Amino acid sequence: MSLSPVTLTPAAAARVAAIAAKQAKPAMLRLSVEGGGCSGFQYRFGLAEAVEGDDSISETDGVKLVIDPMSLELVAGSMVDFVESLGGTSFQVTNPNAAAGCGCGSSFAI
Questions:
Q1: pTM of the model
Q2: Are 78 and 98 in contact (CB under 8 A)?
Q3: For residue 15, which phi and psi values (nearest 5 degrees)?
């Protein structure tokens, strides 16, 4: 089974690069999915130190997005963006696999 890659927008790549530079870490964002949140699953973001052997990798403007195989099954074909609004700033996932989501956009259901 071939899963569609997850795309990192240029805005999200720029934000990851800025955070990584401040922390003197590689410009590599790890997206994972965990059980929990108001809708059943929740997204987790963090800077990655290294790529694991079975990770899926996509790259935008020199910034890598890495995702483990289990999480990739739930987010395949998604787009990760960085949004700044009156409500604050956050990474947001547009997930075509999600049947429902919560108002804050950090959790979803399949």
A1: 0.84
A2: no
A3: -70, -45
| CA dist list (Å): 44 to 1, 68, 86, 89 | 24, 12, 22, 15
Task: Give me the sign of the Cα torsion angle 5, 69, 96, 12.
Answer: negative
| Residue range of the domain that includes 70 | 7-103
Per-residue model confidence as pLDDT tens digits over 9-42: 999 999 999 999 999 999 999 999 988 766 678 8
Residue 22 is part of a domain; what is its CATH number? 2.60.300.12
Query: How far out from the chain centre does Cα 67 lie?
Result: 8
Give the total number of structural domains in the chain. Answer: 1
If one counts every other C-beta atom within 10 angstroms of the C-beta of residue 103, the result is 8
Q: What is the pLDDT of residues 84-106, one digit of tens each?
A: 887 788 888 998 887 766 555 55
Contact predicate 27/62, CB 8 Å: yes
